[in-house]
């Protein structure tokens, strides 16, 4: 259930994140394109509309042509379908006050399209138009000039234009006065820009669909990758809880058994039941140590381990602790020796002692009567090296790969009251302190644990 729900959440979050990125990117790109696509066109519109020479030339040409009664030539130059092939970019239309086009012959075969325009309502403001081309268009005579009455065309199409209309003063221009000119409209065809925008939007949509599908696949892959450490941590937590429960259950069961035995003999003295009381106290001490170890593990996992780094001379700081182990080894018929050289280490002394205690206890536990345990310390290049060696049963290569796992025991017949968590604590504390902890064989038998502390 955890895997399915968490995986689904990861996939959903990744898909949403990728979708937001693609949508925002698409909107930004479209906005940038739309804002820049017409910049040159609008600039050209303004240049033409405010060019006195161009407008005056068009007014003069219209006035001269309109002075003739009839133009025999057909201003429309179409193919057999009736459609003009003259695709233009810009055109000037002269308008009278009543909305009549005053320069139809200047428009030539563009008249069927231009006749659909009206002067822009807002003067001086650029406006966009969509004009249907190809439909049957009826043209009325203009200023006594007879134009074609009907233009037949093929299939209809839509053309797009941008225009600007400005008022035209007739006071100083006799040609404009003779025409009855009121307004001048400049029109530019923007079909190519529209088609480019349409193609770009289509390509953008296709790309977004493609990359959206790719993002979905990546989301699934990323979700699986993100799930691996979570599943590993969850599995590790389950194993930890299961093993910790097992380790706690054993001493509790022993305690319960011993205490219930005391209740069965209410008249017995303490001396009579000293063995049972001793066993119970031993299990209490075991529980106390296990609780301390579990607390240390919890602090390491949560990152709540507080380090108190000081300048430590191992020869002085560790002398008393190692001397106590020498006395303990004598009582267990083992040989214990230590040789720790002077040095200057910036480290947490309490955690350094805890790591060494774990390693020495482990060496004592897995050695037998007559075996030896030694601790050596000295400079080794950029490190200060501690070596805890024993001549006990040793550790197989297979077990070396797992001895730092929590609750892992190499050999239960030699484990005594151990709980299999000590070496994992030593490894995790070493990692937090920046030490390097290694294990290798001691010749001819036994094992060596080496801690290298950075100087």
Plain-language structure description:
The structure is a single chain. The chain is of the alpha+beta class. The chain folds into 3 domains: about 40-190, no CATH class; about 230-300, Signal transduction histidine kinase, dimerisation/phosphotransfer (DHp) domain (Helix Hairpins, Orthogonal Bundle), CATH 1.10.287; about 310-455, Histidine kinase-like ATPase, C-terminal domain (Heat Shock Protein 90). It is built from 13 helices and 13 strands. It starts with a helix and ends with a strand. Residues about 70-85 and about 135-155 have low confidence and may be disordered.
- Give the number of helices: 13
Low-confidence stretches: 69-87, 135-154
Structural domains: how many: 3
**Mean pLDDT rating:** 80
- Helical percent range? 40-55%
Name some characteristics of this structure.
alpha+beta, 13 helices, 5-stranded mixed sheet, single chain, Heat Shock Protein 90, 4-stranded antiparallel sheet
Summarize the structure.
The chain has about 450 residues and is α+β, with helices and mostly antiparallel strands.
Write the layout of secondary structure elements.
Blueprint: H1 2-37, H2 39-49, H3 52-66, E1 90-96, H4 104-107, H5 111-114, E2 127-133, E3 137-138, E4 150-151, E5 157-167, H6 174-179, E6 181-189, H7 191-263, H8 274-302, E7 310-312, H9 314-317, H10 319-331, E8 335-340, E9 345-347, H11 349-365, E10 372-380, E11 383-390, H12 397-400, H13 422-433, E12 436-441, E13 447-454
Helix pairs in contact: 1-7, 7-8, 8-13, 11-13
């Amino acid at each position: 259930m955890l895997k399915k729900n968490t995986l689904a959440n990861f996939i959903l979050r990744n898909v949403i994140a990728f979708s937001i990125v693609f949508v925002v990117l698409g909107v930004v790109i479209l906005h940038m394109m739309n804002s820049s696509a017409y910049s040159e066109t609008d600039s050209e519109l303004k240049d033409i509309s405010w060019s006195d020479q161009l407008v005056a030339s068009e007014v003069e040409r219209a006035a001269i042509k309109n002075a003739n009664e009839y133009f025999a030539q057909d201003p429309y130059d179409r193919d057999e379908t009736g459609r003009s092939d003259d695709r233009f970019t810009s055109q000037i239309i002269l308008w009278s006050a009543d909305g009549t086009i005053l320069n139809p012959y200047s428009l030539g075969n563009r008249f069927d399209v231009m006749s659909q325009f009206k002067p822009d309502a807002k003067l001086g403001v650029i406006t966009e138009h969509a004009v249907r081309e190809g439909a049957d268009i009826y043209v009325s005579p203009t200023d006594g000039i007879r134009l074609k009455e009907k233009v037949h065309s093929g299939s209809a199409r839509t053309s797009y234009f941008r225009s600007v209309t400005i008022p035209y003063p007739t006071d100083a221009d006799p040609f404009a006065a003779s025409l009855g000119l009121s307004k001048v409209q400049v029109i530019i065809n923007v079909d190519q820009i529209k088609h480019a925008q349409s193609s770009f939007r289509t390509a953008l949509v296709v790309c977004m669909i493609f990359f959206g599908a790719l993002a979905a696949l990546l989301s699934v892959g990323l979700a699986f990758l993100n799930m691996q450490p979570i599943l590993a941590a969850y599995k590790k937590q389950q194993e930890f809880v299961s093993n910790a429960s097992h380790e706690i259950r054993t001493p509790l069961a022993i305690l319960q058994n011993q205490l219930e035995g005391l209740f069965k003999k209410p008249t017995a003295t303490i001396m009579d039941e000293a063995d049972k009381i001793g066993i119970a106290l031993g299990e209490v001490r075991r529980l106390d140590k296990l609780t301390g170890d579990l607390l240390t593990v919890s602090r390491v996992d949560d990152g709540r381990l507080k380090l108190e780094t000081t300048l430590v001379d191992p020869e002085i700081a560790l002398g008393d602790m190692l001397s106590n182990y020498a006395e303990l080894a004598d009582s267990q018929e083992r040989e214990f020796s230590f040789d720790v050289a002077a040095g200057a280490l910036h480290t947490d002394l309490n955690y350094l002692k805890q790591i060494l205690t774990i390693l020495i206890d482990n060496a004592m536990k897995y050695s037998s009567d007559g075996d030896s345990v030694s601790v050596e310390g000295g400079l080794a290049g950029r490190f200060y090296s501690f070596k805890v060696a024993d001549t006990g049963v040793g550790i197989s290569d297979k077990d070396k790969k797992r001895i730092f796992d929590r609750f892992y025991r190499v050999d239960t017949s030699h484990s005594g009251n151990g709980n299999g968590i000590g070496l994992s604590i030593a490894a995790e504390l070493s990692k937090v302190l920046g030490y390097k902890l290694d294990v290798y064989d001691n010749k001819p038998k036994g094992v060596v644990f080496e801690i290298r502390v950075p100087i």
